[in-house]
Design a protein that fits this description.
By secondary structure, the chain is of the alpha/beta class. The protein contains eight helices and twelve strands. The protein has two domains: 118 residues, NAD(P)-binding Rossmann-like Domain (Rossmann fold), CATH 3.40.50; 152 residues, Dihydrodipicolinate Reductase, domain 2, CATH 3.30.360. Bound molecules: nicotinamide-adenine-dinucleotide.
């Protein structure tokens, strides 16, 4: 950071629902010398920057702002991410791009390669990897404190917000994919996904993903939906261990088998004994 001893100049590209939060937080972040906003909605009468609320300078096009910044945060619709990231990297700017990094693997690789060869920082907006709870969970799993891991279960459900240019997998699942990889300290060897379109005119709005972590011998399931009246945010490892007796749920933990110690929770015990055969069926079905 020697080059930025007076602070880093940051441009937030896309000052909509999420970008406005980046703008607000960056304005009170130590080390951010100046923060400017870029949004195609900022159409002044001429090409000069506008003064936005809170004395932030606003530009209508990223190209206008690039000479005045060291780094950009890209919070525009997903289909624009790769193009805007490449534009910023080409101009020598560090990039934090909101999830998803890009909408195709090929585009994502282009962006990663461009940043690498330019020696610039490229980050995707996988915010949960910077959450203290995710760090704690990762440490508990790494330290073996949860016992034997059975599976990892994630859900991210709500009613809307529908995105116009991507399916729900691109919009919501990046959080769960990143948090599962992060807390398990691994990457899946196989992924299967199922999605269906109900209300969205073009893209799936309900989806399930199954991720096999072959090295760990476990699976992560991810359920995402824009069609759930109930808002759910869940990232949950299921594991087997002995708990102190005060944490047992004795009323519903009856399925504990003779010869086996009581397990962590009733739900966990239920899974242990009811789903074992289903798990085997799924595995053999896929390998045949
Ligand atoms: N990390 C998170 O938890 C989180 C939460 C919400 C949204 N997001 C991500 O943030 C991004 C934006 O989502 P949103 O809900 O704020 O969308 P939004 O539609 O509210 O805002 C997008 C803004 O980008 C502007 N824009 C579009 N194309 C542009 C361009 N080429 N140049 C400059 N401005 C342009 C639009 O005018 C709009 O103001 C998405 O990638 C979304 O996945 C992340």
């Amino acid at each position: 950071m020697g080059a930025y001893s007076e602070g880093i100049r940051i441009g937030v590209v896309g000052v909509g629902y999420w970008g406005s939060k980046h703008l607000r937080v960056l304005r009170s972040t130590t080390g951010a010398a100046t923060v400017v906003g870029v949004d195609q909605r900022f159409t002044g009468n001429d090409d000069s920057p506008q003064l936005l609320d809170f004395d932030v300078v606003g530009y209508s096009d990223i190209e206008q702002a690039l000479p005045d910044v060291d780094a950009v945060v890209i919070a525009t619709p997903p289909s624009t991410h790769a193009r805007l990231s490449l534009q910023a990297i080409k101009a020598g700017k560090h990039v934090l791009v909101e999830k998803p990094l890009a909408t195709t693997t090929a585009e994502a690789q282009l962006v990663v390669d461009a940043a690498e060869s330019a020696g610039l920082v490229l980050m995707a907006g996988h915010t949960l990897e910077h959450n203290a709870a995710a760090h704690k969970l990762r440490d508990l799993i790494r330290g073996g404190h949860l016992g034997r891991l059975y599976y990892f279960d994630c859900a991210r459900l709500n009613l809307g917000l529908y995105q116009p240019d991507v399916a729900v997998i691109m919009d919501l699942a990046p959080h769960d994919i990143s948090v599962a990889n992060f807390v398990l300290s691994s990457r899946p060897s196989a992924v299967t996904a199922w999605g269906s379109r109900h209300v969205h005119p073009e893209y799936a709005d309900v989806a399930h993903l199954l991720r096999d972590y072959g090295d760990l011998g476990i699976r992560a399931t991810i359920q995402v939906s824009w069609l759930s009246p109930q808002k759910v945010r869940r990232s949950r490892p299921w594991a087997r261990r002995r708990w102190p007796s005060r944490t047992r749920t004795s009323s519903t933990a009856s399925p504990t088998a003779p010869g086996h110690p009581p397990t962590a929770t009733a739900a966990l015990t239920f899974f242990r004994y009811s789903n074992a055969s289903r798990y085997r069926c799924a595995s053999s079905g896929r390998s045949s």
